[in-house]
Amino acid sequence: MTKNHYDYIICGGGASGLLLAYRICNDPYFKNLSILIIEKDIKNTNDRTWCFWESGTGDLEELIHKNWDQANFTAEDFKLDFSLQPFHYKMIRSLDFYQSMNNKLSKFDQLTQIKEKVKSIENGIVTTEIKSYHGGMIFSSIYNTNSLTLQKKYPVLLQHFIGQVVQTQKPCFDPNKIEFMNFNVPQKGNTRFMYLLPFNSNKALLEYTLFSKNVLERKEYSDAIAEFLNQMPTGGFEILEEEEGKIPMTCYRFDLKNSSNLLHIGTAGGWTKPSTGYTFQRINEKTKELVDFLKKGEPLSRFGKRDRFWFYDLLFIDVLAKNNAQGADLFKRMFEKNSPEVIFRFLDEKSSLWDEFQIMRSFNLKQFISALLKRIF
Ligand SMILES: Cc1cc2nc3c(=O)[nH]c(=O)nc-3n(C[C@H](O)[C@H](O)[C@H](O)COP(=O)(O)OP(=O)(O)OC[C@H]3O[C@@H](n4cnc5c(N)ncnc54)[C@H](O)[C@@H]3O)c2cc1C
């Protein structure tokens, strides 16, 4: 029998909801608090594959399905074959994550998990299709696109893709090396690339990815993957699994929807890196920061702040939204002129000002200055 009041209510039991619940339950500081997770789905499928880079051993190491230390970056007339050191590129299958988290969470008496669909969150009350729950604090990972589409101030691109796990007849992948971004696919006026993660020499996950405003017909993504594979000595291939993503790339102020007792988390909280769409490792880090923040007893609206990286992303998205075909050239210049280690640190928002200055110098600054002037005036 569920109660009506909980100290913390977490809406959405996906990546951010489960990880936040796990971190709270594992911290003795919160042991007397009651926590409710409301999730609409049974999370029993591998609906996504999360990848991220990290140095050394991370908190979720036991869940890593595969990791790589070598990568390729490819663009027109440019190919860089590089070591990812000091980072490792790591993969987590979402089903392993959901099962492991739910299994761990089931051992905490303070936590209740229910399968209901949230209809609204207002004034500390979460209403589902079945009943209402009062929460001392509410954390919502329910991503609603309405607020994004109704505003014009921040352009919204999508990182959209279909990913297919394929099995080839002949060995044709280098199992130790990922294709981080391969821009040698027709750009058709957008930013388009192939991303390839090999499990072994016959099996890989390929994602045909765009950074653009509008999604494509499903067939276009799978045709592009087939076309890419047809240039390799596959001997034929079979599709084993498929997943799709539509991740917002925007500097829209998701945080303005927070209040003293409501915080949006995960993609819904703007935790996705606007210029790349990477979110998972940020969820990992931000849930840790959030747990520390909660101990201070401050209003939730004070969690997180904008910094210079938000501003770099703002200009990047402004430039890419204005001229969507620019992406291949921007990434190519970045990889041509900077070491991958510096680039990954920059994308992690842990670079020095000197690193950032070097990266800026790689670009044709005219378009960034024009974007900056537009923002100012
Ligand atoms: C296919 C795919 C691949 C991705 N790959 C990567 C990657 O490689 N690296 C990376 O960094 N990021 C990746 N991302 C982006 C991001 O990491 C994921 O989307 C991640 O799952 C975001 O976590 P979240 O908690 O914000 O959202 P989710 O994990 O989607 O969790 C939100 C939860 O809310 C639930 N929900 C929604 N509406 C309601 C409602 N009304 N009531 C109750 N529950 C509700 C949903 O069922 C879901 O479980 C990928 C995304 C997708 C879709």
Write the topology of this structure.
Layout: E1 5-11, H1 15-25, E2 35-39, E3 49-55, E4 64-68, E5 70-75, E6 78-83, E7 87-93, H2 94-105, E8 111-115, E9 118-122, E10 125-128, E11 132-140, H3 146-149, E12 157-168, E13 177-182, E14 191-200, E15 203-212, H4 218-230, E16 237-249, E17 262-264, H5 280-294, H6 308-322, H7 327-337, H8 340-347, H9 353-362, H10 365-376
Parallel strand pairs: 1-2, 1-11, 2-8, 5-13, 11-17
Antiparallel strand pairs: 3-7, 4-7, 5-6, 9-10, 10-11, 12-15, 12-16, 13-14, 14-15
Helix pairs in contact: 1-2, 1-5, 6-10
The structure holds flavin-adenine dinucleotide (FAD).
Largest sheet: 7 strands, mixed
Total strand segments: 17
Reported CATH architecture of the largest domain = 3-Layer(bba) Sandwich
* CATH class type of the largest domain: Alpha Beta
The distinct bound ligands, ions and cofactors come out as: flavin-adenine dinucleotide
**General shape:** globular
Report the structural category.
Answer: alpha/beta
Number of helices: 10
Keywords for this entry:
single chain; 377 residues; alpha/beta; FAD/NAD(P)-binding domain; D-Amino Acid Oxidase, Chain A, domain 2; 3 domains; 7-stranded mixed beta sheet; 10 helices; 17 strands; 29% helix; globular; binds flavin-adenine dinucleotide
What's a quick, concise take on this entry?
The protein has helices at 15-25, 94-105, 146-149, 218-230, 280-294, 308-322, 327-337, 340-347, 353-362, 365-376; strands at residues 5-11, 35-39, 49-55, 64-68, 70-75, 78-83, 87-93, 111-115, 118-122, 125-128, 132-140, 157-168, 177-182, 191-200, 203-212, 237-249, 262-264. It is of the alpha/beta class. The longest helix has 15 residues, at 280-294.
